[in-house]
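Section 5.1 Outputs to date
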Amino acid sequence: MLVFPLANGVDTERSLQPVTLRAAGSFFTGLGSNCVCQAQQRRLSFSAFHPASGMIGVMPAFRLGGPRKGLFYWGTMARKLFCELSPLTYRLAVQRMILTRKLQDLFSPVTFAKRRAGEHLPAVVYRHNSLIRRKLGNVDLHLQENKAVSLGIAAPLVDSVVIRPGETFSFWKLVGSCTEAKGYREGLVINHGRADSGIGGGLCQFTNLLHWMVLHSELTVVEHHHHGDLDLFPDFNRQIPFGSGTSIIYNYLDYRVRNDTDQSFQFLVSTNDEYLCGELRAERVPDVKFHIREEDAYFHESRGEVYRHNRVVRLTRDKRTGLVTSKEQIIENNALVVYDRALVTAPILASPPSVTEDAAAAPVPA
């Protein structure tokens, strides 16, 4: 057994696990650690992208003669990423990632949504209100108050933006960097898998709201990140399925949506004393309706740790006939629970339940 430090900083004992090498230079994911690695030809090493910080580093790998040709086994060693050497190298690495994204966008053919309409589009596609002040474990409540301030600053920057056919909505293109000079305050951030504080922290609740509305529409999500490997806080009045949220870092971890339809859409966003309020509007009412639901939800134990599993699926229903025309899986989560297992309100299974092929292929109820 080896101890593999996860990208989010939570250590867990794992046995060596195989990763299939599709082709030299191809990208793949291994060990469920959220590290995206690129195989280097003729060398057993990988350049790894660190999702919590967005940094690039190199880590060695080793081949142990897997059961099939082309199988490699790898794990992180003691070598640190460049961004972890010192506070200076961290800042340099962050600025490099920000500059890289700016240059990519500068030379990209993508047309970003920028226009704000004075009038609201007529058809309401979906609306949702998100409670601003929520109990999140032992997180200091003043961070929730600060989040309310930051959301109040960011909401008008997105409110009323119109996404015309062919355009792409980018959260960071509209909101920009979050600084104290702009009035943003310290809020909750996730740092190496643990709750921390940072300027503008809590704005992921904003993109959570946008993403939830987009899932109920015909818009296409083209960039989405989330904390899918960790269950950070026990549930408190949860309204949406676990694992359906977002993770953002200016500007290289963005939330982006493209309009591939033949009509314009519009986000309406505002805050009041209790809620972040959102509406997604369009020029006309869509012919279909979307339902998001959770399936195969359970907690289970593995090697002394508790994990939370679920699948988030989307059903498409024809409004004229009422029939479900399609079912697609949005995401599957199997997250390490990092809070006290005594706070888990559901039963903790000794092992994941087996799913038969017949059950997996069961028809979708109308």
